[in-house]
Amino acid sequence: MSRFTEIDFKLQNLAEKLNAKLTKYRPDYPEVLRTFEERRIDWMDNDISKAIIIQPTFENEGVNSTIWNLINIAWFDDAKSITRPQWIKYLIEKEEFEIISQNIDFLIKQSEENLVNIKIENLNKNGS
User: The pTM is what?
Assistant: First the structure.
């Protein structure tokens, strides 16, 4: 059973509200690299790419699916810049998945507020 079973409908509702796409894996990755579950809500807003990502922690030894992250990210890719201007905020970093599932209502509300309000001037070249 997927660990996302209890929250997928809330993520789908948010994706629909934002006119975004909810992806449950990395469909464009080869099967051999799809070894973990994740969720992404991606959309464009005035030429800024925005995403809410729930994924396990990546470590030197591989994917650690005992600790999870919920990340808000926005970026602008004009295909000219050496470094793409971006903004990243971790709402949850290296915590058990249950922390995310127990707080999902607050986390999706906070994510929506964070990302809806991001404008091009909020992005910077060092990513924070």
Answer: 0.88
